């Protein structure tokens, strides 16, 4: 028989905006208002029953006319806020998370990781609401514990409300830069177009009632009903964490979003090498609060869990399983090959192995890897290889190959993984850059900066190999020597001249500049506006091939002229472009 499960809710946002405290407040409220005996604790998440919300938010439920209209059983809040948990709640083509709360500090706006959270949430297509937290910090705000925001705002001095509105206005403007239309939740007319902003305080509990009711409304309207439907068949879930537990061996904390998981079941999940089977020895859940006497003795073994559940799985064969991996239970051996195939396919969609040019990506879990690659793609950075676990020697080799096509791809981006010292050493000696970190946008920013530097250096190097255009005039009255070599005073009319360049007159070569002297001293270059003396080597004599007042151009070989015109034109100044065009025109008519 099918039933409807509670939606999974993840809390996201910049550091210190109040995610942890907000979760604590919500959980505390739920514990205070729940029915006795109701299980509110899972492994890794907490159940907030709708009845508890209704009791807690009573008058607001009536004001918003929600009584009797909510059919979701409650909410399952993921206990760990932030990117990593959200990323690991992955499933093929989307997210296990049904809803997200993007928490922002109302006094400081979105901030870096707020923006990154927003992008992550959007990239997985998860509906979300915004909690504009720290409402109690609004100057002049009068707090009453746990009061719904709608009632609180009616009871404030005008200047406190004005400050609040100004802050919300700023936030709305900031969000609009990311293509998000938002408004204070009680002013939202169309929830399918606008994201609701709920002012909250995790300290005083104000606005928490509003937040929970808005979540309920958004859940019922925007989570596809099929997604909340659970069956009774073999479990489907996702691995959130894998760790060694004393006395138990390797255990996996998982979230089961569909079906049932039983002691003795075979599960298929995945590690670095691909799909992996394990046999469930024990299923562990927290004890109901009433039975929890000794804090040391918080857990109990159960025979079976039903979706939705957060459960600790003790099983043989969990070594090497990676967070973010899918989990499929199989009840009949016949189904095993199919489960392995499904998991294998899913994993191969996350990993990338190609010979395309692009960066190398490493991340600690399947979830963070998928998020990192998605993020890079959105920013237009191609990926050659992506895998979980620390970088290897092979990665360095791949990066060297990728660099051949584009120097800005000679890099390994390492998210939340340690770099083995010998790999680090090899990277350094091969000139491969490793950028590591725990915050995606920082890694990305560092990569951008580095790739820009590399590009600039590469271009400088290319440009230094090309002859720059130039145009000079022999100054009348400044012929110092007529031949062998010619020495004349010239004015640079456009571009630059350097020793070694060939000069042409009317498209024909006259000789090479040997030396340039400025005020009696040799110089390496003369630029537009300079007046200098030059010596010209070649079969040339003043009065024959050249004369006073003549205009001469720097000879730019055909293939270099093409490079300038078609590839590097933006690196030429206007006077240089003009000199090049004149030179080419004269060449053409001379050779016709
Ligand atoms: P997180 O990093 O987002 O999980 O933030 P925390 O929940 O750890 O909160 C960071 C700091 O902000 C702590 O000192 C909290 O006490 C404080 N804080 C969180 N929420 C509020 C709030 O609503 N009002 C005020 N005044 N302080 C808050």
From TrEMBL:
<keyword id="KW-0342">GTP-binding</keyword>
<dbReference type="Pfam" id="PF11987">
    <property type="entry name" value="IF-2"/>
</dbReference>
<dbReference type="GO" id="GO:0003743">
    <property type="term" value="F:translation initiation factor activity"/>
</dbReference>
<feature type="binding site">
    <location>
        <begin position="13"/>
        <end position="20"/>
    </location>
    <ligand>
        <name>GTP</name>
    </ligand>
</feature>
<dbReference type="InterPro" id="IPR023115">
    <property type="entry name" value="TIF_IF2_dom3"/>
</dbReference>
<dbReference type="GO" id="GO:0005525">
    <property type="term" value="F:GTP binding"/>
</dbReference>
<dbReference type="InterPro" id="IPR009000">
    <property type="entry name" value="Transl_B-barrel_sf"/>
</dbReference>
<keyword id="KW-0648">Protein biosynthesis</keyword>
<feature type="binding site">
    <location>
        <begin position="133"/>
        <end position="136"/>
    </location>
    <ligand>
        <name>GTP</name>
    </ligand>
</feature>
<keyword id="KW-0396">Initiation factor</keyword>
<comment type="similarity">
    <text>Belongs to the TRAFAC class translation factor GTPase superfamily. Classic translation factor GTPase family. IF-2 subfamily.</text>
</comment>
<dbReference type="InterPro" id="IPR029459">
    <property type="entry name" value="EFTU-type"/>
</dbReference>
<dbReference type="InterPro" id="IPR005225">
    <property type="entry name" value="Small_GTP-bd"/>
</dbReference>
<feature type="domain" description="Tr-type G">
    <location>
        <begin position="4"/>
        <end position="225"/>
    </location>
</feature>
<protein>
    <recommendedName>
        <fullName>Probable translation initiation factor IF-2</fullName>
    </recommendedName>
</protein>
<dbReference type="InterPro" id="IPR027417">
    <property type="entry name" value="P-loop_NTPase"/>
</dbReference>
<dbReference type="InterPro" id="IPR004544">
    <property type="entry name" value="TF_aIF-2_arc"/>
</dbReference>
<dbReference type="GO" id="GO:0005737">
    <property type="term" value="C:cytoplasm"/>
</dbReference>
<dbReference type="GO" id="GO:0003924">
    <property type="term" value="F:GTPase activity"/>
</dbReference>
<comment type="function">
    <text>Function in general translation initiation by promoting the binding of the formylmethionine-tRNA to ribosomes. Seems to function along with eIF-2.</text>
</comment>
<dbReference type="InterPro" id="IPR000795">
    <property type="entry name" value="T_Tr_GTP-bd_dom"/>
</dbReference>
<dbReference type="Pfam" id="PF14578">
    <property type="entry name" value="GTP_EFTU_D4"/>
</dbReference>
<dbReference type="InterPro" id="IPR036925">
    <property type="entry name" value="TIF_IF2_dom3_sf"/>
</dbReference>
<dbReference type="InterPro" id="IPR015760">
    <property type="entry name" value="TIF_IF2"/>
</dbReference>
<keyword id="KW-0547">Nucleotide-binding</keyword>
<feature type="binding site">
    <location>
        <begin position="79"/>
        <end position="83"/>
    </location>
    <ligand>
        <name>GTP</name>
    </ligand>
</feature>
<dbReference type="Pfam" id="PF00009">
    <property type="entry name" value="GTP_EFTU"/>
</dbReference>
């Amino acid at each position: 028989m099918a039933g409807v499960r509670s939606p999974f809710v993840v809390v996201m946002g910049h550091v210190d905006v109040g995610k942890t405290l907000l979760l604590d407040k919500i959980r505390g409220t739920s514990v205070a208002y729940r029915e006795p005996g109701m299980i509110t604790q899972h492994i890794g998440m907490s159940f907030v029953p709708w009845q508890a919300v209704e009791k807690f938010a009573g008058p607001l439920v009536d004001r918003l006319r929600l009584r009797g209209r909510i059919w979701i059983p409650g909410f399952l809040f993921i206990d760990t806020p932030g990117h990593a948990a959200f990323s690991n709640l992955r499933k093929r083509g989307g997210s296990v998370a049904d809803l997200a709360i993007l928490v922002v500090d109302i006094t400081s706006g979105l901030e870096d990781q707020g923006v990154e959270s927003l992008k992550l949430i959007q990239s997985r297509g998860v509906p979300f609401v915004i909690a504009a937290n720290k409402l109690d910090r609004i100057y002049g705000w009068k707090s009453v514990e746990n009061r719904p925001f709608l009632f609180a705002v009616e009871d404030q001095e005008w200047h406190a409300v004005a400050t609040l509105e100004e802050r919300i206005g700023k936030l709305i403007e900031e969000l609009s830069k990311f293509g998000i239309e938002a408004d204070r939740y009680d002013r939202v007319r169309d929830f399918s177009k606008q994201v609701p902003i709920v002012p909250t305080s995790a300290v005083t509990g104000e606005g928490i009632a509003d937040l929970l009711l808005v979540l309920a409304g958004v859940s019922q309207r925007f989570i596809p009903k099929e997604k909340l439907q659970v069956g009774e068949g073999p479990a489907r879930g996702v691995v959130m964490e894998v760790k060694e537990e004393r006395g138990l061996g390797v255990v996996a904390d998982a979230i089961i979003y569909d079906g049932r998981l039983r002691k003795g079941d075979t599960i298929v999940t995945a590690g670095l090498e691909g799909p992996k089977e394990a046999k469930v020895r024990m299923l562990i859940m927290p004890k109901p609060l009433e039975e929890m006497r000794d804090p040391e003795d918080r857990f109990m073994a159960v025979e079976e869990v039903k979706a939705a559940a957060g459960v600790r799985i003790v099983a043989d064969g969990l070594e090497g399983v990676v967070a973010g991996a899918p989990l499929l239970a199989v009840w009949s051996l016949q189904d095993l090959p199919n489960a392995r195939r499904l998991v294998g396919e899913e994993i191969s969609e996350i990993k990338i192995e190609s010979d395309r040019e692009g960066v190398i990506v490493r991340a600690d879990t399947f979830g963070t890897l998928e998020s990192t690659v998605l993020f890079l793609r959105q920013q237009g950075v191609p990926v050659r290889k992506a895998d979980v676990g620390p970088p290897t020697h092979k990665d360095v080799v791949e990066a060297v190959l990728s660099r051949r096509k584009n120097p800005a791809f000679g890099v390994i981006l390492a998210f939340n993984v340690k770099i083995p010292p010998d790999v680090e050493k090899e990277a350094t000696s091969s000139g491969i850059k490793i950028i590591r970190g725990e915050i995606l946008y920082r890694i990305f920013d560092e990569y951008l900066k580095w790739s820009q530097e590399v590009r600039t250096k590469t271009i400088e190097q290319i440009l230094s190999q090309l002859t720059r255009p130039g145009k000079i005039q022999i100054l009348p009255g400044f012929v110092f020597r007529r031949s062998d070599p010619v020495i004349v005073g010239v004015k640079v009319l456009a571009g630059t001249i350097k020793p070694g360049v060939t000069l042409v007159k009317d498209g024909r070569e006259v000789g090479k500049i040997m030396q340039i002297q400025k005020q009696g001293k040799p110089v390496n270059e003369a630029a537009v506006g300079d007046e200098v003396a030059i010596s010209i080597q070649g079969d040339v004599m003043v009065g024959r091939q050249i004369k006073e007042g003549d205009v001469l151009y720097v000879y730019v070989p055909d293939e270099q002229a093409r490079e300038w015109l078609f590839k590097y034109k933006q690196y030429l100044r206007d006077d240089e472009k003009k000199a090049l065009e004149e030179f080419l025109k004269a060449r053409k008519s001379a050779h016709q």
